[in-house]
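tool_call predict_complex ligand=adenosine-5'-triphosphate
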Amino acid sequence: MLSVHNLSVDYGSTRVVDKLNLALADDEILMLVGPTGCGKTTILQALAGLIPISEGEITLGAWRASAKKPVPPEKRNVGMVFQDFALFPHLTVQQNVCFRLKDTALADHWIDLLGLSALRHAKPATLSGGQKQRVALARTLAHEPVFILLDEPLSNLDAALKDNLRWEIRHALKTAGVPALWVTHDQEEALSVGDRVGILNGGKLEQLDTPETCFCEPASRFVARFLGEASFIPGKLEQGRVVTAIGDAPGTPVDGATGEVDLLLRPDDVALTPAGAAGNGAVTWARYEGGTRLFAVNLDDGTQVKVRVSHEVRAEPGSRVQLKVITTHPLAVFNRE
Ligand SMILES: Nc1ncnc2c1ncn2[C@@H]1O[C@H](COP(=O)(O)OP(=O)(O)OP(=O)(O)O)[C@@H](O)[C@H]1O
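tool_result ok
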């Protein structure tokens, strides 16, 4: 188990990671997300031992690192996977994976498992981005790290490739059975691939929980907005239900919210029907997404609500529509701002 207790990192007089606490089970994948500059890379560097920490402790198996007693990177046995692959261009796939490896049987295992057998003798320059990242992962796993750090491993790949490779990486990490901390900018990746998600804001963990809980029961408006489209609509919480201008839904109060509240609506919590001259709002803008369309609708009280519906529904900007809350699961309820 990896345990991080009160980890803080300062650059000069600026604290960029502030009392981070987390514990990862032996095969757990934790996705770390947050806006640019919130400290994600700094946390990875601190865990790898590449930068000094100011406070706190990191414990993993046989080693324990603190500000006073640092453990050098080479003694930590941490595997790292970067967005730029970091392969040796003059070596083949096989040689890259076997680099400084005593037991090459493990290299073969990961080359096979990651679908690279036919590319053993290829040089990195002849590989696609996805293949390169598989080689980098095979090399990391073949060295039997006790812990893996992934710094935006998919950010240099195109969307179609990303989708498959994220599942292949998850499968490989689970097969290896090592804890992994995976930094991403992609909210969808964070929610779909991780066992848990940590949302960072200004060097502090704002929430650390399962993807479902972070998405459906965000600890703050910041988390709600960061993990996807979020609209907040005024309502009244009465006996576990929130009554709003466009219908009512069961509510889960955040921070003891009560009485006059704001209800968090995700775009799929609401139905939209074109309404001629009637309706309860007007379309501000519409975005075609392929299978779906995302609409921003201004309700008659001025509140903006985003709604995602089938691509078959058409409504031009300026036209009247009828919105209705359709969800049956509880929605997060916040104190009125
Ligand atoms: N070597 C350094 N010296 C001083 N400040 C630094 C240094 N490296 C990073 N910082 C600052 O520390 C903060 C956290 O940076 P970090 O790179 O960890 O953020 P991040 O969340 O990884 O950002 P991004 O998503 O843009 O990669 C930022 O304000 C950054 O400017």
